[in-house]
Amino acid sequence: MSAPTTSPAHRPPAAGLVGLTFQLTAARFGARQGESLLYFAGVLAYTIASGLALTVASGTLLFWRRSEHPTGTLAELVAHDSTFSLILSLYVALAVTACALLVPATVNLASGAALLGARGRERRLASLRLMGLTSGDVTRMALLDALLQFLIGAALGGVGHVLSLPLWDRLTMQSLPLTTAEMMLPAWLTAAVIVGVGLVGMFATWRGLRQVVISPLGVARRANKPGLSWLRAVVFVVLLGVVMVIVNVVRPGSQLVPYLVLGGGLVIAVVAINLVAPWLLQLIARAVAHVPSPAMMWAARRIVADAAATWRRVSGMALLAFIGGYMALMPILIDPDDDSAVVRGFVQATRLDFVKGVVITLAVGFVLTATSMLIGQASGTIERSEQSRALHRMGAPTSFGRRVMWLEVFGPLVVGVALSTALGAFMALPMYRAAQRFQLDDAPGLPMIAAVLVVGLTLAAASLLATRPLHVRLLRLEERRND
Amino acid sequence: MNETLLSTHDIVKHFGDVAALAGVSIEIGARESVAIMGPSGSGKSTLLHCLSGVLTPDSGSVLLEGTDISALSDAKRSRIRLHDFGFVFQDGQLLPELPARENVALPLMLKGSPAGASLRAADEVLTKLGLGELRHRRPSDMSGGQAQRVAIARALVGRPKVVFADEPSGALDQATGHEMMQLLTASVGMTGAALVLVTHDLAVARWCSRLIEIRDGLVHADNPLRAVEGATR
To answer: Which residues of A touch B44 (CB under 8 A)?
Structure first.
């Protein structure tokens, strides 16, 4: 008898695949093998990513609405001096910049959600391949599975976002409270944000499946990833040069354009860091691999094996450190020549707006990053469970795997955070010096950097500690093999 | 049989309501090679895990040179596995990020040996087993047979008293499995360790000097085997 093949004529109809996917999902919950926990963790990640993406979009829309159609105090202000419309545009530009800075953390979280527990899903897909489904069929089923998780998460995130809107009413920006009406997103924008987060998740699932070969005989990882090229360092230096030219040429003042150019410089710097950091991590890890400690050796080799993935894990936190470093020295002060009551009142009421914006951005980033790290660690612990059990059988102390995990995550985190903080501060230094010449000393200062680092590292430690029970449970799992 | 090295005494092990082992008593001598066979679900892997201290029996005892290892804490059993036992798993279970020499050196480093000495010992074992050219390759750059040979080197580098092999040729084709078993029995014989392997393949079991058959969690038969041609035992 010949091996079963699936010709186009015998391919299951799309409706059949959808039904089968739903049946398998229901079976996962029925099996009670902990997979439902992973499923809910994926849903939670999508909930947080969607909810926060909607909230950030709401804030940006609010500033855009106020800029385009100023009312009340803002209308009076613009009527008094039309150049103040530029200040309102600056808020929009900064809100968009904050969105851009939060994109990597959101992408990481959505990717983590998509890849969470992928190994278990892959095994099931291998069984389906054995039963005659094509590679395309199993990819479509995996995407459907991820889509279902995303839709549940997006719905919950949307509800959470709407419920949180009245809370923003307590916060004032531009001298006015952030009202629910102003924060409410139109349906088209809500759909666009949700579709955006969903596309990131679907792309991550598709990319994750491309990294494995699902054959009827099982799942195999694709070959080693090639080392990262030193050209990344060259491009980094070039981009950094561009940024340094920008920050040295552009002088901050009451005009909008310099701030927009500086914002562009900030984005270029973020791109440059994301290019060079994985290569740098790989370089350092290669050297550390020769340190005479088995935990250090394995942790370093794990980083070398996929430095880009290691960087993705810590980049959210590093980005926050970069913002902290930059904002700590960056002077932002609106100092109008106009001495009228309406202008003075506005300036007085908005003195803390910039700090509030930074704090909100950091808080959103922290939540995204902490969830992402927790999910990444949980996923990694599950993926490596067989390896961990093999080491345990060989007699490796239980603490060995944990030491490796801490070194693998904390080592790059410390390097990434230190590098990013230094670079952020370095970028803001020329403006800080210029501001000092004008005797403007309104920079939030070093305490902000310290707060970012302490909160960030504490969150990372909490994420790692939270996965410890899972690690111990998987090691002690006494499952009976088919012996 | 040589002097008893490892023995079980009426061990019972349940998984839920199922009795994987229902009272097994066996003795394994130093330098002996024992194959444990049985149909699926008979309890052969559970017996191997109890013998190696990975699992503890619900009742009964497992003695290594007179010490009841089943009564020891998890940490103490781990130390025994690290110092006195070597393991060859079905799919090698080499650490994918480490090159062969570091995979082989790892058990020595975990015991506290200096890194340099551990790596030199790993190189020596790999060369002895004819695997010198694989030293700097990672598992993903090796064939299944090559990876399993490196796993044998890892099991032997610490000069264990017993090597446990769980379906060591299960993931290999027949010819590669044959070569791997030849290497395993010959190299274990050279180190003077005992070999306990679990298999469902009689051709693999024939590389050992003794065959224990397990059925329904009990020893069904325990007989000497005439080693196949080419085996050193």
So the answer is: 483
Give B46→chain A minimum CA distance, Å: 7
From B92, which residue of chain A is nearest by alpha-carbon distance? Answer: A390
* Structural domains counted in chain B: 1
Residue of A nearest to B98 (CA): A301
pLDDT of residue A206: 78
Angstrom distance (rounded) from CA A87 to CA A59? 16
For residue range A90-109, list pLDDT tens digits in order.
888 888 877 877 777 777 77
Mean per-residue pLDDT over chain A, rounded? 78
Q: What is the pLDDT of residues A333-368, one digit of tens each?
A: 556 666 788 888 888 777 778 777 877 877 787 777
Q: Which residue has the tokens 């506290």?
A: B112
Q: State the DSSP H helix or E strand holding residue B77, giving kind and residue range, or none if neither.
A: helix B74-84
Whether the predicted interface score ipTM is above 0.90: no
The CATH number covering residue B198 comes to 3.40.50.300
CB atoms within 10 A of CB B219: 20
> Is A395 in contact with B75 (Cβ distance < 8 A)?
no
Q: Characterize the bridge pairing of strands B85-88 and B67-68.
A: unpaired
SS3 A177: strand
Say yes or no to pLDDT of A393 above 60: yes
φ, ψ dihedrals at B28, nearest 5°: -125, 130
Residue A340: C-alpha distances to residues A29, A51, A74, A351, B120 (Å):
66, 41, 14, 17, 81
What token pair was written down for A249?
Answer: 């040429």
CA distance B103 to chain A (A): 9
Give the model confidence (pLDDT) of A258-284 as tens digits: 666 777 777 788 788 888 888 988 999
Q: In chain B, which residues have pLDDT < 70?
A: 1-2, 226-233
**Euclidean distance between CA atoms A31 and A23, whole angstroms:** 12
At residue A5 the predicted structure's pLDDT band, cuts being 50, 70 and 90, is very low
Containing structural domain, residue B90? 4-232
Contacts of A33 in chain B (CB under 8 A): none
CA A304/CA A228 separation, integer angstroms: 9
Residue B52 with chain A: CB contacts under 8 Å: 393
> Which pLDDT value is given to residue A11?
53
Looking at residue A361, what is its pLDDT?
78
Contact A302, A408 (CB under 8 A): yes
For residue A399, the chain B residue with the least C-alpha distance is B75
B120: which chain A residues are within 8 Å (Cβ-Cβ)? Answer: none
Cβ under 8 Å to A: B residues 51-110: 52, 54-55, 74-75, 78-83, 85, 87, 89, 93, 95-98, 102, 106-107, 109-110
Instruction: Please report which helix (H) or strand (E) contains residue B194, including its range.
Output: strand B194-198
The tens digit of pLDDT for each residue in A181-219 reads 999 999 999 999 999 888 887 887 777 667 666 666 555
Contact B122, B108 (CB under 8 A): yes
Cα separation of A459 and A105, whole Å?
14
Strand partners, B194: B162
Enumerate residues 180 to 239 of chain A having a beta carbon within 8 A of any beta carbon in chain B: 221, 223-224
Q: How far apart are the first and last CA of chain B?
A: 13
DSSP three-state, residue B14: strand
Residue A264 neighbours by CB distance under 10 Å: 16
Rg (CA), chain A: 25
